[in-house]
Amino acid sequence: MAASPRSERRAERKTARKKKRAQRREQRKPALSAHHLNTPHLCLLRAPRIATATQPSGRDITVATYNVHRWTGLNGRGASDPARAAFVISEMNADVIALQEVMRPHRGDDPLVTLSDAMGLHVAFAATRVHKRGEIGNAILSRWPISGVSMLDLSFSRIEARVAVSARLRFRNSSLDVVATHLALADRTRHRQVRALLDHPDLQNAPTLLLGDMNAWRQCKATQALDEELRDHHNLDWPASFPSAAPVFSLDRVYSRGVKVLELSAHMTRAAERASDHLPVIARVRLPA
């Protein structure tokens, strides 16, 4: 007996639903497989499409550190909007920038690549963990080429995965090591992370810059160790950078070894107050002769 038209339509709809479900499963496969890379890993080293400079024009350069809060703005509950933080980064016009809480989505445009190409900056990125929406980690942006990159796993706690990424910038007769990190909230873990950083070869040699969100909201052992061993900071009055709307805590810092810090301040503009829960901290530093 032949099937009725209604039965045929029902069967067609059922087949179409099966195909759609299969397509959705295929689309999810890359994202699901990425979740297995849930340990810190180095995953991006890239030059911009058009690079504008290969050497500093003088000994003084501008560096900055900025926690971009996953591109979600002031309260972290809004939709991802990398353009807000990108505008703040363009305002600073820094030569070297360390970024924390960078989100690189599984699908769609990569904000780091877009930013790198738009501003002519070289970029290195290390992921601390994989979120359901993408990789989260630390990045270094540089006006000049990155000649070498390495990563240090600072995940000393099961609760918080942390990482430091190090980039070497090589100039005519010298080089500069830049280390970017985002330290833990717990005092004991943060102290272990600082000890690991200070003992790392990339922070043993001068000139070196350590940039990042140190989460050092009080005079803990981690802060004391950094202040004692990286003494090239021009003073200990760190600018308040958190929360961005009314900053009280000096969480974001620029430490140096063999590099003189000439000026240091929080970058406070209307755009910066809304683009993240942290203000960027920007410094003018002088490279050794």
Walk me through what this model shows.
The chain has 289 residues and is α+β, with helices and mostly antiparallel strands. It folds into two domains: 1-34; 38-286, Endonuclease/exonuclease/phosphatase (Deoxyribonuclease I, Chain A, 4-Layer Sandwich). The protein is built from seven helices and twelve strands. Strands 1-4-5-3-2-12-11 form a seven-stranded mixed β-sheet, with helices on one face. Helix 2 (82-92) links the parallel strand 2 and strand 3. Helix 4 (187-198) packs parallel to helix 6 (221-229). It is elongated.
Please sum up the structure shown.
The chain is an alpha+beta fold. It has helices at residues 5-34, 82-92, 111-119, 187-198, 201-204, 221-229, 270-275, and strands at residues 41-46, 60-67, 96-105, 122-131, 134-142, 148-153, 163-170, 175-182, 208-213, 252-257, 260-266, 281-286.
Order of helices and strands: HEEHEHEEEEEHHEHEEHE
Give the CA-based shape. elongated
Strand order of the largest sheet: 1-4-5-3-2-12-11
What about the largest sheet?
7 strands, mixed
Could you name the CATH homologous superfamily of the largest domain? Answer: Endonuclease/exonuclease/phosphatase
Q: Would you report the number of β strands?
A: 12
Distance between the termini: 93 Å
